[in-house]
């Protein structure tokens, strides 16, 4: 994937995880930082019990990412996803962890255990964007969403018909950029 540009250099990195019945499967995707998929960490890091509340900008990006997901599904004739506070919390906690540590993009190794109970399928998309502080809310959300839609594994998660719910978490660190996580789940 090559860097995306509009007025200033921006880099978007993406990773996707598909999962069913608690089984997490990595989808290999190239990135600027690595020629392999973003890794799943070997061990579950010590995450805080609760995510910090998002800033106003982070919350606006989360809302836009959620809306873009349902717009894409509508365009493909797939039913809408419902927003899920519990999935938001899992996604936000993971994005905050990555941003605060300035880590390479990675999947949450404990996502299946952290998603609220009752799910039949779970998936995760992770993205990173370093915009140098020049993009607005819509541009940040649009660029990461566009990257996800152009990537087969991410697109599959976004358009998977049996997913019923979505949680979105965004965290920004001025030194490390934006980290975005989407957690999908199927609930009866």
TrEMBL record:
Keyword Signal belongs to the record: yes
Organism of derivation: Georgenia halotolerans
A Pfam family per the record: CAP
InterPro entries cross-referenced by the UniProt entry: CAP_dom, CAP_sf
Alphabetically ordered keywords of this record: Signal
The organism's place on the tree of life at top rank: Bacteria
Domain SCP: 68-184
Membrane-crossing residue ranges in chain numbering: none
PROSITE patterns the UniProt entry points to: PROKAR_LIPOPROTEIN
Keyword Protease carried by entry: no
Region forming the signal peptide: 1-21
Protein name per its UniProtKB record: CAP domain-containing protein
């Amino acid at each position: 994937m090559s860097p995306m540009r509009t007025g200033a250099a921006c880099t978007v990195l993406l990773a996707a995880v598909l999962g069913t019945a608690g089984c997490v499967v990595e989808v290999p995707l190239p990135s600027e930082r690595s020629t392999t998929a973003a890794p799943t960490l070997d061990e579950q890091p010590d995450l805080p019990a609760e995510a910090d509340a998002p800033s106003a900008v982070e919350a606006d990006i989360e809302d836009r990412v959620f809306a873009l997901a349902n717009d894409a599904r509508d365009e493909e004739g797939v039913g809408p996803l419902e927003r899920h506070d519990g999935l938001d919390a899992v996604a936000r906690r993971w994005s905050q962890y990555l941003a605060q540590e300035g880590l390479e993009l990675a999947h949450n190794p404990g996502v299946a255990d952290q998603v609220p109970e009752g799910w039949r399928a779970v998936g995760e998309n992770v993205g990173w964007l370093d915009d140098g502080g020049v993009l607005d809310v819509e541009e940040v959300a649009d660029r990461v969403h566009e990257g996800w839609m152009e990537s087969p594994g991410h697109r599959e998660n976004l358009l998977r018909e049996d997913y019923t719910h979505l949680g979105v978490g965004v965290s920004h660190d001025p030194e490390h950029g934006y980290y975005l996580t989407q957690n999908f789940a199927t609930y009866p």
